Amino acid sequence: ETANGQPARTSTLGTGHHSVRSLTSLHQHAVLTAGDKLVYGAFMGGAFLCFTASSAYHCFGPAHLRVYLLLQSLDMSCILLLIATSYIPPMHIAYSCPAHQWLLLPYLSIVFSLVGALLVLPVVYPRWNTVVMDSARNTVFTFVVLFAILPALHWTTLVGAEEARFGLERLLIGLALFGTGFLVYVSYVPERYYVTRGSTTPLSSHNIWHVMTAVGTFYSLHAAIEFHDFKTIQGCQPIHRNDRIPAWELY
Fold this sequence. Notes:
By secondary structure, this protein is an all-alpha fold. It has nine helices and no strands.
């Protein structure tokens, strides 16, 4: 409850009118609509399929070359699925206000078009999922992830400084978690410094990558829920011109 005894929780996203500061002090939770549950379910479903496919690939892939190639292709596809579904909750929340909702479909359409094209690419170009294309594939996957910065920066120009700072901080932390794991993976740290050919170690770049991916996915879900709480309490308040601060001036 707030200081006057009224509940600080609302039943729909973007309609709350209570102080944003009550979020951190009372940690109120938004009541999810059917649409909200579908949004979070899509992200959690993408994460579940991605980690399930990855587990199957690493457990059963070495059994036979044909199984390995099949599961490798499935693993790559599910990574793309996780990337696509990870866009849905934050953009659903960020562009939830009626004045901004029209931007949601164009941005998600771009993301899903990129992911869809990459899902089809191995069919028309079978070498795409092979080792020789690792560098190109990693570069393209990274571009699709970093595309999130564009709609995020656009969004910061549409909302107040407090909301922009709240959302942008969580986006950057999530990207840092995934980015750290990715950099470790592509640079083969730490095994490049002490592992000889043919030896193995539990502390490998690939294992670290999986851990950081899991941590990043969990953090992304937690951050989306925090952002949902924030937006529910703050609501779609009119923003004065002086309250809009360019993203490069937020810090």
